[in-house]
Amino acid sequence: MKTTAVVLAGGSGKRMNADRPKQYLELCGHPLLYYSLRAFEDSFIDEIVLVTAAGEEEYCRTQIVETYGFQKVRQIVPGGKERYHSVMCGIKAVSEDADYIFIHDGARPFITEEILARVYSDVQEKKACVVGMPVKDTIKIAGERGVVKDTPKRALVWQVQTPQVFDAGLIRRAYGRLEKEEAELLARGVEITDDAMIVELLSGHEVYLVEGSYENIKVTTPDDLEYAGWLFAKKLEK
Question: Residue 118 in contact with residue 136, Cβ under 8 Å?
């Protein structure tokens, strides 16, 4: 079985309030993007497609991939306007003989071999799996004016993470439909927030949840970056 990771590194990082995109900010001596690439490089994954913001391909090639000797990064491609556009660009660059595609946010530096192995084991049977964790807090569904409309049963609510992993044919077909039906979905007010949602909406295939880790955070704000530094320091102490 051939496995490919599509790593997304095209965000602008506006909420980080930094002078450069968050994926290039330093975290414990390395760019944030380094850590997710290193995890896939050192794992069973066969190849990596790195998706960057348009115009940053050469920077990523020289300053990230070549500097750190990542051998599995086979292609570096520009992304699009929205996250799902970037995923679409990444999927199109994946080798035709890939069996499974792992889609991962480059701003999640704490992905581990254990999580990758767990989700890979499940996806071979279930074809569509997303990593996540049960929420710890009570969740409220808000209506107009901030009024509570509903309180879902906490045991049934998960916070979704990445990687999200799919049978290659399944995710290609789902994104192929999205390319044709995007305008219609947007006109209906559908907000596309992750890859699992695209599979749910456009393939009818069930998507399964796989336990990740509460430490598998996405670094989005300065507070997240500080917390990530604390987590790394904590791991070094062990």
Answer: no
> How are strands ordered across the β-sheet holding 128-134?
73-78, 47-52, 3-9, 100-105, 158-167, 128-134, 208-211
pLDDT tens figures, 45-70: 999 999 999 999 999 999 999 999 99
Give me the residues paired with residue 148 across strands.
142
With DSSP H G I counted as helix, E B as strand and the rest as coil, what are the percentages for the chain, rounded to 5?
45, 25, 35
| DSSP-derived secondary structure letter, 14 | G
pLDDT band at 238 (very low <50, low <70, confident <90, very high): low
Q: What are the tokens at 14?
A: 């506006």
Cis geometry, peptide bond prior to residue 78 (ω within 30 degrees of 0)? no
Domains of the chain with CATH codes: 3-237 (3.90.550.10)
Is the distance from CB of 37 to CB of 106 less than 8 angstroms?
A: yes
Residue position matching structure tokens 């290039």: 24
Residue 46 near residue 57 (C-beta atoms within 8 A): no
Torsion 227-6-60-68 (CA) sign: positive
Strand runs (DSSP E) across 97-150, as ranges? 100-105, 128-134, 141-142, 148-150
DSSP 183: H
- Sequence-separated (6 or more) residues with CB below 8 Å from residue 177: 202, 203
